[in-house]
Amino acid sequence: QGKFTLLRDTRTDGSFLVHHFLSFYLRAGCKVCFVALLQSFSHYNIVAQKLGVSLTAAKERGQLVFLEGLKSCLDLLFGEKEEQSGQPSPLQFISERASNLKALFDFIRTSLTPAGGDSSKGPVLLVDDLSVLLSLGATPVAVLDFIHYCRVAVCSQLKGNIVVLVHSSEDSEDEENELVVNSLCHHSDLILWVEGLATGFCKDVHGQIKIIRRLSLQLMAEQDHVQIYQYKIQDKNVTFFARGLSAAVL
């Protein structure tokens, strides 16, 4: 509890980790607020069904709060601002000059604050993917402030967990995105860094994952613990193995 996990992908797609954490926390009975900025609800629901979880059922019983970023953006940009609750849209900053993510933070805090008869376990905030906020016009400082407030509210006050996906590239000219990624790396308790193979595409090895446990954040001042595995994504699961030990090689 109280952990911040950063999912980082370079030269490949790390969204399989988002699907894993979403289904994992829902099966564990946690209250999940999913800020989905990259894909539609139906996309996540189809993948979740393959993993044995129904997002529709989770929404109906109040366990899953789903913010469909694509739909919210279109509603804001094309003037369909009909808010049933009278509250501003969580992505209100798109239509305002000020890059202020307060409305999004308020939406998350309200969604995850336990109600009287709520029997869910620790709350979880899942964001896919944070880089989209920069593309929508938010400044790096606003994004980092937003994550800081989320960590205080979710990790410290509510004793929950945060899982965030960001895209990165070593040779990228997007300085704002790299600033956000590097800053988040310094604050994360656990980093799962998915990378494409340096040698190019391989049908039996889809990439490698670097698992960095940030022991240096704790008082003992130990060195970070790093493990590196290669993986192959299959229809309903992912196979991990030591580097150079895939089934195709052996």
UniProtKB/TrEMBL annotation:
Spell out the family assignment given in the record's similarity comment: Belongs to the ELP6 family.
Cellular component per GO, a single term: cytoplasm
* Organism of origin: Ibidorhyncha struthersii
Q: Which InterPro entries match?
A: ELP6, P-loop_NTPase
Q: Which Pfam families match?
A: ELP6
Q: Name any Gene Ontology BP term.
A: tRNA wobble uridine modification
Q: What is the lineage of its organism?
A: Eukaryota, Metazoa, Chordata, Craniata, Vertebrata
Q: Where in the cell is it found?
A: Cytoplasm; Nucleus
What metabolic or biological pathway is this protein involved in? tRNA modification; 5-methoxycarbonylmethyl-2-thiouridine-tRNA biosynthesis
Does the record's keyword annotation contain NAD?
A: no
Q: What is this protein called?
A: Elongator complex protein 6
The UniProt keyword set, sorted, is: Cytoplasm, Nucleus, tRNA processing
Question: Per the record's keyword annotation, is Nucleus included, yes or no?
Answer: yes
According to the record, the segments passing through the membrane are: none
